Amino acid sequence: MSEKRKTRKSSISDQPISSEQSSQMNEDESTAPSISASDRSKDKMIYFSKGLKRSLSSESAAPSDALSYRSMGQPLSFNVKKSELTEEPVRKKPKKDLEPQREAEEDPGGSHLLKIQTNHRNEMLRKFAKTSEGNGDQESSLDSIYTELIISTGESEGPHEEHSFRRQRQPSSVNTVHLNDIFRHVLPQDTTRRIVLTKGVARIGKSFSVQKFILDWAEGKANQDFEFVFSLAFRELNLIRGNKSLLKLLTDINPALQHLKESEVLDKAKVLVILDGLDESRIKLDFENKPVKSVTEETSVGNLLASLIQGNLLPNANLWITSRPAAANQIPAKYVSMVTEIRGFNDSQKEEYFRRRFRDDVNLPEKIISHIRSSQTLDIMCQIPIFCWISGILFKEIFAGDEKAQTPQTLTEMMAHYLLAQTKRSSRKYDKKTERNKERLLKTQKEFLLKLGKLAFVQLQNNNIIFYDEDLKDCGIDLQEATIYSGFCSTVLREEDVISQKKVFFFVHLTIQEFFAAFFVYECFISKNTKELGNFLDWKDQQHTLYDLMKMTVDKVLEEQNGQLDFFLRFLLGLLVEPNRRVLEGLLTSPDLSQDTDKKILTHLKALRRKALSPESCINLFQSMVEMRDNKVKDEIQEYLKKSDRSKTELTPLYCSALAYMLQVSKDQLDLLELKSFNTSDEGRRRLIPAVRISRKAILADCKVTEEWVKHLSFGLKFPYSPLRDLDLSNNDLKVSGVKLLCDGLSNAGCRLERLSLSGCQVTEKGCTDLASALKSNPSHLIELDLSYNNLGDSGEKLMSELKENTQYKLSKLPLEHGGSHRMIDGLKKYACELTLDPNTVHKNLLLSEGNRKVTWVEVEQPHPDHEERFVTCQQVLCEQALDGRSYWEMEVLEPFMVGLTYKSIGREGHDGKLESNDKSWCLFCSNDGCFVTGDGEKVSVTSHHSRSSRVGVYLDWPAGNLSFYRVSSDIRTRLHTFKTTFNAPLYPAVGLHTVPKNSQSFALFC
């Protein structure tokens, strides 16, 4: 399906423009970027304010290696001159349509079919060879404006992909494929049927790529092994009513095939069917229905498409399906041969776009680029080509002739300026009398703008980005009214003719639709006209304050957890702030400032602590605060990132959400993300999970990772542009369910993980089966897999060992030791060890008892025999066991005491023998003066963590160089401190007791 765009320049100033300025304005619009081509439509556009033109077919934000600067923001309309495209001059022949039928009767075999093929190619040329940019006065060939798009193999999955705010990272290891080689790249090569699914966010260039592919085929440049290439756009298919056969469907959409009567021709021919814009579909694809096997059998369009995808219809045909990410899962994975993704602009491409677009003004591009760089949100959004176009129109108006111009500080303010600019532009161009006062101008257009806002809101709730006549009528808009306001809609709501002279409508960009929906809901809230909002909220027939309504909306969006209303919420809350709303005076009503609604909502956002909130939802709350111009958290996180010693700064969960966002949009690659290194709570660490996918190495060891965390990690593993190569999940109780979720990501072709530690994760025989299956699906990357300290069983160990020996896999390091059923105990107790004190090392003022598990300080020296290992100066004792693996133990203690670990070479006499004051020991020391940990030359107070609990815990991970001390109460461990170092010899647990007053006691008992 084609897309066509017309754009005109906007103005934000209140001053009338001269004829010279008007001429320059139209010239700018004609050079706006183009991403779409037409099908057979004449691009009639409803003029509204440059916003609703987002080609809701199948475009989005991906790398635009493939879009020329002119093909990046403005729609293309393909108005083809037939005489220039057909192989023969077009002559009027009244009886021409009868000739193919006569030829078929005379020559049923060859020339008739060849004639149909030729006519079909010519028809494709007429649709796609030429395009008119801007207002359609000039035609350009599609080839002249096309630049090769970056198409990667693999898929990008994860929450909120449609408005992904992550910076595009494209490592050299990612596989790319040329557009015309997309079907040659599919494996296995000998298959007769291949289905390629191409994903990309809206307006990235998916349909544009389809059109270029078809044009190259029709011109004989590529893919000549296909005898027929058919393009079926879902925006057209939605309009077909009743039952049809596949043959009838193809001939209706491709009139050149109308004389193709031999149905078996399609069955035998090499055919490519392109299903463009799955995300626009309103058709139910039922893969359980009775299959259709004949191209002449009539059934519903949904059943036809399902049978085509399943291979029941045209079993030898190849299929190419394009879709936004959110809708792609409608196609069962078992039917898909390969997934590809189209990417957006990188930084250099964005800069090139603005410099080429404004090449006559040396300073303007640099001003625009500088401003975009200063706004992380805008910088990310401009990865989408059409958003660069929108930004160019807006910022040219702002910077034109004004060195001190105030630029929009938020995305909400930017959209408000854009709406005003387009309103002014249309008024200057189409109104007999131009209204110079912006407030009065907006008031005159308010009724129609709110109708468009209602359309945007209703369709956004249904996740629709294309609309039809009946959708407009439901919102009080008829085509006659649209014509009256045509000057208002050219860059907001676009109209396009499709099959049977019917029309489709769509906003210029999803962000524009979301902004219109937000200001409509805002105005309904302010005017208390909640009936217009239908069942959006549970009104309960009560009177609600503006704060109540805003709070209810926040809660509703958070409950959705699909990201569909995230930007809508940001815009809605952003409109509460007067500087964002000021530019739309006359359109929007100001709230009662005495209610302090904006301050109350900010307080509500900061106070949210729901466990059910996904990390991505938490980030959206932070971004909503930024839209409300509350930048305190953002500024403090920026300062935090500049610190060399961040461990001393405690982070609240909200600050962790902000940090996760800042890390994701940073241009610097994150080499290491270790969650335990952040001074925060378990909830704070949970909110940092989204940052894992943008780090090269992530350590989540002993972080109480839950199934929810694993789901997000699995999504991150599927992201083909993630630099993540090393993931440490050791000491987390993933169990069977968690391992299975993780394997969903490991099995994906986009996963390029090289090292994975699942040591101590309660992996079982079933987990080994899931891991083996994942590696068989994606065998090319994983080199190291640590499965030690689990309960794999003999069969599990055998299965994994066989994978290591199989040269098909790269797996070269596979630790399996230290297993057993006791490893299935939750928490650190799976590493519990039995320790006994060494009587040959005990000081003479210490008494051992209870099988050498308890030591007590005594005033009277004990008759211990002399021994070279005995402590002489310090009242200490070592354990008999040397530890060089993972061990955990707990002790009952009575102050004053010291517990820790040391090398066997610790001195037995003098100052060097004290646990708390040498370079061979690490210990926890508690007395009336407080609690401290000492080791590695540092002494750290942990008194603030001190509790009345008489039990302490010690965890040693010798290979990893980690030693942690805990206070334990009712089986709840509170970590006091963790040392990270490198151990060079086995360690011995040690206890030290101090002199106490008479009738007092100091002891330690190994539990």
Automatic annotation (TrEMBL):
It is found in: Cytoplasm. Residues 10-38 have a biased composition (Polar residues). Residues 815-1007 form the B30.2/SPRY domain. Its main location: cytoplasm. SUPFAM superfamilies: Concanavalin A-like lectins/glucanases, RNI-like. The keyword Cell division does not apply. Gene3D superfamilies: 2.60.120.920, P-loop containing nucleotide triphosphate hydrolases, Ribonuclease Inhibitor. Residues 194-327 form the NACHT domain. It comes from the Eukaryota. Keywords: ATP-binding, Cytoplasm, Leucine-rich repeat, Nucleotide-binding, Repeat. This is NACHT, LRR and PYD domains-containing protein 5-like. The lineage of its organism: Eukaryota, Metazoa, Chordata, Craniata, Vertebrata. Residues 1-115 are annotated as: Disordered. InterPro entries: B30.2/SPRY, B30.2/SPRY_sf, Butyrophylin_SPRY, ConA-like_dom_sf, Leu-rich_rpt, LRR_dom_sf, NACHT-assoc, NACHT_NTPase.
